[in-house]
Amino acid sequence: MKNPLYDSLFAPHWGNHSTFLYLPDQDLSFDDFLKLASKFANAIASFGLVAGDRLAVQVEKSAEALAVYAACAQSGVVFLPLNTGYTAAEIEYFLGNSGAKLMLCDVKAYESLFDVAQSSGAKLAVLNGDGSGDFAEKAKEQSADFQTVERDQDDLAAFLYTSGTTGRSKGAMLSQKNLISNATVLAKAWWFTNADTLLHALPIFHTHGLFVACNISLLTSASMIFQAKFNLEDALAALPKSTVMMGVPTFYTRLLSDARFNQDLVKHMRLFVSGSAPLLAETHVEFENRSGHKILERYGMTETNMNTSNPYVGDRRAGTVGMPLEGVEAKVCDAVTGETLANGEIGVLEVRGDNVFQGYWQMPEKTAEELREDGFFITGDLATQSDDGYITIVGRGKDLIITGGFNVYPKEIETLLDDQPNVLESAVIGVPHPDFGEGVLGIVVPKSGADVDVAQLKAAMAQKLAKFKQPKKIVIMKELPRNTMGKVQKNILRDQFADALK
Ligand code: AMP
Fold this sequence. Notes:
The chain has helices at 4-10, 30-46, 63-75, 88-98, 107-120, 134-140, 176-189, 207-220, 232-238, 249-256, 281-291, 364-370, 410-418, 454-464, 490-496, and strands spanning 19-22, 27-29, 54-58, 78-81, 102-105, 123-126, 156-161, 171-175, 197-200, 223-226, 244-247, 271-274, 296-301, 305-309, 323-324, 329-333, 347-352, 377-385, 391-396, 401-403, 406-408, 423-433, 437-446, 473-476.
């Protein structure tokens, strides 16, 4: 193949399976999408970018935004999508760090980004969510023919900056092979075909919405109902026309919050996939009771694409992330020695396979800390593996609490708190404690309209947990801070409650 990524995801669809994207105001065929992408590829080239250069993109989700990804694949330019929530000060770091030659932004951000782009030497052009802007204008004048640039499967396809919930974001370098191998394995594992229509309401600056969702659909010529973001009404309207939905856990809890979400609405659906944050076992059960479908939970991260999945056929086990995908090796290791632990023991999950990234851009020390010479990547997630191979994520290594020399895994306490009457969800963190170094703090969100009794919660914890694991204090919050992918931002909670036990 001349350009494995472009040839496998994009090129074969010429003349194929007419509708690729169902959009609020139009439907776009594969042919038209690829013509647009080639015009974009010519426009990108006209800014002087060649294969290997980085193109930073902070734009609203749209067909055009996805076409920029296709254009990058066709021209060998490294695609660097950025969270639409990042401020100019944050973008300054990404542009400086990546050395991007061009940045595409929304017109609303143009002014604030102008100086930032100039000082890092990047050109700036506009692509708005409605497809307008000077970049789009420039592309209109271009030819819809673009000579696909030859690439090797080990060439870089994309940089995705890690979400940075612990420390500074790092640019994860993903090769063509990383992306193609994962899409191929997932499409097979989840039985994707061109008869599928995926309800796509995830952002496309993140591995979940961009690579998992779009790459699989592109690879298999499936169609997508492309929604700018998750909105309950739009999701309810689209479900009867879809066969698959991919979401973060909050999508599923929001569907469950509406009585219109029932078996009849999803009778054409064949699969619901969840990932990016833990799905509560309770949500899994409630979802099955209401819809007749068992959510399929999978696990992955920016650096590795997807690593594990519950089975399409077989036991989709609530609270677990399933088994390693084909071609992915996974082991639970001792955090200090790196030795593989026995089944059932908690340790750090390490993974190896064609899905694992090439390292962090210009951070050789960081790369060496997390990517072993033998190819295993130290995910930083704490996990256990059952005798029959199912992996359960029990939290981030960095969230581990060490109180008076004892290790406390927040998940164990969160699960107990979540089970108490009137509790919707909880987060358990370690905060500075004068005697123990760190002390356990429980943060509890009551179910809507309900009250929780803190004294009763403490009594329930005292019955079930060793003294050192019991929260020294429990505070009530209306909701937990989450990022766009539904992850609880424990760093924010640790800052907010830094003095809670002093
Ligand atoms: P990101 O790089 O933003 O995709 O974040 C990856 C992290 O999200 C992983 O390292 C896990 O901590 C978490 N994560 C992803 N999927 C799951 C899941 N199904 N269950 C629990 N945590 C998950």
